[in-house]
Write a structure and sequence with these properties.
Order of helices and strands: EEEEEHEHEEEEEEHEH
Radius of gyration: 16 Å
CATH superfamily: Ribonuclease Z/Hydroxyacylglutathione hydrolase-like
Shape: globular
Number of strands: 13
CATH class: Alpha Beta
Distance between the termini: 11 Å
CATH architecture: 4-Layer Sandwich
Oligomer: single chain
């Protein structure tokens, strides 16, 4: 999908590629991809910080942005990658891309506790802002994003994240120009969850679309 100068591709689960001339991967998992210029990791769980997939993509000069608790895994990589640690509320700039870290956590379970300080990402490329929510429930911090997001990538699989209904509620709060479902079809959730999300978003006047893997 082309959005401004970004070629946005869903790679399964919570994995995305943003191709802006430079290749930016988010949470690569069970993928075949080209060498990455930037890799963003939201938290250390195996389907988000997959060292096997990071190895496929990393080259000399790749910048990897991650939370501090991913550092020990990524430090095992061969080659001269540049590691940048990020915490909730911080913003970095890498190769002209502004990268902000947004809280991502569960409200009523401990799978992703707020205390872990795991993240979603806001990426600004020119005037386009892409929000990758990470593994999260519907949380109050999303209200601060209202009207500031071009594309929202929201988990819909339930169990470890929001389900389709909660994700649609998040979309109505954030009010992106486009909402895209993720985190289904691999670990938990199904295409039916993605379809329900799109239907519920459209009922609330939010444009939503499923990207094919």
């Amino acid at each position: 999908m082309k959005i401004g100068d970004i070629d946005l591709r869903w790679l399964g689960n919570a994995s995305f590629l943003l191709d802006i001339g430079k290749k930016i991967y988010i949470d690569p998992y069970q993928i075949e991809g080209e060498e990455a210029d930037i890799i963003l990791i939201t938290h250390p769980h195996y389907d988000h910080c997959s060292i096997e997939d990071i190895k496929k993509l990393a080259k000399s000069g790749t910048t990897i942005v991650c939370t501090p608790d991913c550092q020990s895994k990524i430090a095992r990589l061969d080659g001269e990658v540049e590691l940048k640690l990020i915490d909730v509320g911080q913003t970095l700039e890498v190769s002209g891309v502004k990268i902000g870290a947004i809280p991502a956590y569960n409200v009523n379970t401990t799978n992703h506790s707020k205390e872990e300080r795991w993240v979603g990402y806001l990426l600004k490329v020119g005037e386009i802002v892409v929000y990758h929510a990470g593994d999260t429930d519907l949380i109050p911090e999303m209200e601060k994003l209202q009207g500031k997001v071009t594309v929202a990538l929201l988990p819909v699989g339930g169990t470890y994240t929001m389900n389709a209904k909660q994700a649609a509620e998040a979309a109505t709060i954030i009010k992106p120009e486009l909402a895209i479902p993720m985190h289904y079809g691999e670990v938990v959730g199904s295409r039916a969850d993605a379809e329900e999300f799109v239907r519920l978003c459209q009922e609330q006047g939010v444009k939503a679309q499923i990207l094919e893997k």
